Structure formats: structure tokens, C-alpha cells
Amino acid sequence: MVFAALGAASCGVTTQPAGLTGATQAPAGSASPPARSTGQPGTATPKQRAEQDAAAILAAFVAPPGARHLAAPPAGLKSPSGLPGTPDLVDKAGWWQVAGEPRQVLDWMKAHVPHRFTLDGSGALDRGTGPIWSDDFDLPAVPGVLLSRQLVLNATSAGRGQTAIRVDAQVTWLPARAPGETIPTEATAVTLSLTPGMDTHNKAPAPVTVTDQATVRKLTALVDGLPLFPEGTYSCPMDDGSSLALTFRAGRGGPALAVATVNLAGCEGVNLTIGGQRQPGLGPVAGGRSTAAQALKTAGLNWNLNRYVI
């Protein structure tokens, strides 16, 4: 199943060359210029941080000895073998050509990727210009800032015993939430209510309203601290409709100021409405159960979520 997240969090159904010794660093081409710092250290926006990390990832690539740097992508490598399905993406690329057979060149490059990278996958595709071989490497995400950080190596035949190389540094970021997309400060009570999955056959516990102000502040901070759900296309488990709703009110029994519905299945995003108006979905992807568990712990409730989800 594929989930298309277009700013909302609700889920739905909709994927060593011969003769080489040592290593040399070749200059890297770039698909876009790095972002300039606009403030003090630590004040970079998520997009600026993504630009900086992508530049550093591309700079970490070690080109094979004798490789000739190219100013533009060669035939067959006009685009990378894959791209994350989100507009919140920085993709910096470099291109080279070197003597050797593509798979041997790729094996050499793979052996010289810094140890901090983890191999995520290998593959091959053909766009009509011959096989393109690829290896993908990951760095850990940066919680709340960068969703993914990847080094993508592509190699294909350039003819006459030469191999064309494309290297991409791909970094996706989590956009910052706007100030108006947070729980109103007038909220002094929170009602927690659980909706079981449609096939669980277990009755939901009675809703509980929390009025302790320290607890209300913690629940407010939990929701306000969630990142925006990243745009893109995701493969999700089946959504059975189970959720935990946090309704923020101006006093017990007052009208709802905001409702955060934490989805416990599917992509597990969080739907937020403020004053009855739907806001951008919140994440992270597959983080609903952990968010719900934290909310229940904060409220002092021992509801077993596993009883209400498929």
C-alpha cells in the first residue's frame, strides 16, 4: 500500500577496477549552490541545514584514481537512480568518467565510502542506454530537523572501456511549523478519548479529562513539539481507524479549542484542528503509537493500546 502525504497526516491506500591503487579526491559538481548562513551558529533553518549536510556528504565521496571530473551529467545519468518522494529535498550531484567496467568501478567506490555511512541497498536499472548500477548509503536522521540523509552512487558504461559515474547527496528536511499552528494558550483542560480499530472488538475506555495545569502544559508541549508530517509517498500498513484524540478546552466541559487525533495504524500521523480549522498534518512517520503512549503516560493513564489496534 502507498500513502501519499500531501501536507496531511491521515493515511490511505493508494517503493575494484583493474589497475586502481589508492584513492584520490576529485572536485564535486553541484546541482545547486550551498545555502549561506543567515545567523549565529545553530540558527540555520531545516532547509539550510539540509543544504549544508548535502554539501558535506558530496564532499565525502572519494573518486577513483584517474577519474575525470565532468561539468555536466553524462548520457544515461541525467538523473539519479532514485529520488525521495518529497519536495522538501536537497539533491547535490557530481559526475565523473574513469577507465574500467561499471560494476568494478562501483565496487571500488563502495569500498571507499566512509565508515559512518551504512549500506541501504544495491540495484540496477536500464533507461534504454544500458544498465545503470547503483549503491545507496545512509546517515542517521537528525530528529526534528532532517528526515533522511543519503549518498547515492551510480555507474554505467560510457563506451570504449570507460565508466560514467554519478554521485548524489540527497537530504530531506522537516519544515518548521508556523506559530499559528500550535495549541491555544487558553487551553486549561484536555480530554483523552480512544477509538478502537474496527476489527478489534474491544470496547474503548471512558474518556478522561485532565485539569491539572502542569499536566495540561505537558500535553500541550507534546503536540506543539511534533514536526510537520513530511510530504511525499509512503508505503503504509493497513489503517484500521484506531486513534487517540486529545481535545484541548478552556475548562472542563468547555468547547474544543483544538483537537489532536493521533492515528495508531497506517502511517500513524497526527491530524490537528484549531478552532475547527484543519492544520497541516504532524508526524513523524510511524510515530503515532509512541506519541499516544507518551500522552497516556503524561496523563497517568494505563490504557493498553495493543488491545485496540489490529
Structure commentary:
The chain contains 4 helices and 14 strands. With 310 residues, it is α+β, with helices and mostly antiparallel strands. α3 runs antiparallel to α4 (288-299). The two termini are 16 Å apart.
User: Between the first and last Cα atoms, what is the distance in angstroms?
Assistant: 16 Å
Number of strands: 14
Task: Output the strand order for the largest sheet.
Answer: 2-3-7-6-5-4
Order of helices and strands: EHEEHEEEEEEHEEEEEH
Largest sheet composition:
6 strands, antiparallel
Rg (C-alpha, Å): 24 Å
Q: How many structural domains in the coordinates?
A: 2
Helix % is: 10-25%
- Average pLDDT taken over every residue: 85
Low-confidence stretches: 1-41
Kindly estimate the percentage of residues that lie in beta strands according to DSSP.
25-35%
**Individual helix count:** 4
Helix-strand makeup class: alpha+beta
Shape: elongated
Produce a short descriptive summary:
With 310 residues, the protein is α+β, with helices and mostly antiparallel strands.
